[in-house]
Amino acid sequence: MLWEFYICFLNVTLLLHLSHGQEHQGAVEVHHISAGHFFQLKCSDDDDAEDRTTVTWSRGGNQTLNTTSGVEVRGEVLWFLPTHTSHNGHYTCESKYPTGSWEMKFVLSVDPGPCPVPAENRTVSQGMSEVVFCRQQDVLSLDPTAHIRWFKDCSPVDKHGETIIEEDCPKRLRLVNATESHAGVYTCLVEFSLQGRNYTATHSTQLKVNKEKVPLKPQVTYPRKETFTVEPGSRVELVCSAFLGVGEGTESESSMFWTVDGRHTDHIEQLNVTKTTILSRSSGVYGRSTLSIYEVRPEFLNVTISCIARNAVGRDIGFLWLQPANHSGFYTCLCLCLAFSMVVLGVAMCCLFKVDLVLAYRRLLPLVSKKRAPDGKLYDAYVSYVHGDGLSKAEMFALQVLPEVLERRYGYTLFVSGRDDLPGEAIHDVTSETMRRSRRLIIILSAQSASPLHPKMDPEDQLPLHQSLQDRPSYDQQIGLYDALIQNGLQVVLVEIDGKVDYTSLPKSLHYIRRKQGALRWRRPSSGKSSSTASPNGHFWKCLRYHMPFKPKGALKPQPTPGINCSIELY
Length: 571
Fold this sequence. Notes:
Elements: H1 2-19, E1 28-34, E2 39-42, E3 54-59, E4 71-74, E5 77-80, E6 89-97, E7 100-111, E8 120-125, E9 130-133, H2 137-142, E10 147-152, E11 155-156, E12 164-167, E13 172-175, E14 184-194, E15 197-210, E16 219-222, E17 225-230, E18 236-245, H3 250-253, E19 255-260, E20 263-264, E21 271-281, E22 284-293, E23 305-310, E24 315-324, H4 328-352, H5 354-368, E25 381-385, H6 393-409, E26 414-416, H7 427-436, E27 440-446, H8 472-487, E28 491-497, H9 508-517, E29 520-522, H10 539-547
Parallel strand pairs: 1-7, 8-15, 17-24, 25-26, 25-27, 27-28, 28-29
Antiparallel strand pairs: 2-5, 3-6, 4-5, 6-7, 9-13, 10-11, 10-14, 12-13, 14-15, 16-18, 18-22, 19-20, 19-23, 21-22, 23-24
């Protein structure tokens, strides 16, 4: 009680001193500190420090500070290293400027007790959170490695629980959900070093817990400013959550309601607040309201929909907007998928009906295009086959079946070896010239063509030739193969007659063409067919016409048949 009496005496003395009319400027600051700790008095915190000419400190009116033990004047700051009960008293700081002077007075009360004297008082309502600061920024700037310890009523703070949390930036204690047990004096003790010596500094705060909870303004927690995408004509439910305050009576005095474009929902059809719930918990009163829109109409789109929470202290508003769903991305994706499907389907159709499409195109081309310029070719195809003593299958096909269909039915011009040569002509010259004036080379092969005449000879040197005309059959095929493989000027079409042909005994050039582009296979019609040229629009003849050059007009229009996929047979 002695130090309280002494503080009262100092205050009375100061008032008497001021009442005698002495001039002064600025306010009087009173500081309650504990003995044995580092302390600073600052002359001024204003922004005109650079304009000062001199700063003078004095104690008790005229007493200089040079004789005061443990007190140093460092610039504008008075340092206590550390404080002592003998430092009780009045201190004056006079700052002189070019235009005048400024005077500040301080009252310093040093308590000798073991527990620091509170320099700050704070009050918190029960159930709320509060922060206690360690106001020693100047000390922390002197020694950034300073160590801080927290005390409550001179005992270390128990921070193991979740209700008291120590935070570093800034240095403070956070009290969560305050109760009566949190009341007391909180002290931060700063241990630091200065010029090789160790000091301590303290700051104490008196915390009181008010049992009566202070009413607070409500706060809408959701939505704040939200935008929702909806389908016009659909049903939508909007939810609003809010904190309505603390204290008794808050639940009965709180309410939540909705407005659409400034109009209360009670006056709008298709709208209904289906449910509003207000719950009281230990941390406060909370509310939840649901707005049901039975049918999203155009007047509900792109307008402000407000959720309003209200209590006895005030109100808060959360905003949301409804916007129609944008399906452009979906339709774009759908169109791309359809387009991709059509492309895939088109490619598949082209692959499956390639022959029919090409043949149809050739029939329509003369109707939409001008007449083609002549290419200097005389024959559409040169037909080569293996000659024998008798009428072989290949020879019968080349002389009878092929001309019947290609020449008589479709108007192609063929040069058939063995049919169109003239006696006495130079075989080699005529054959070479005729092939150069032909657009295709049709080589007809059968199983008989692969029968070696000389088993000991190399297959490249032994073509199955006509016995009496030894040179011509091999020469016309060799000329055609040379043009096809070397000069790339003649397209070769291989036709196999009645069964698989063994190419191992044939020239390697034929084997190469067979492996590269395949061959067409013609089968003799069954016994029920009346002619070997039956079904000219069948698979084989369509494929053969597909490989033949374009013919503007034919001798006979083919009858339509179902689409086929012409793929040359590969083995």
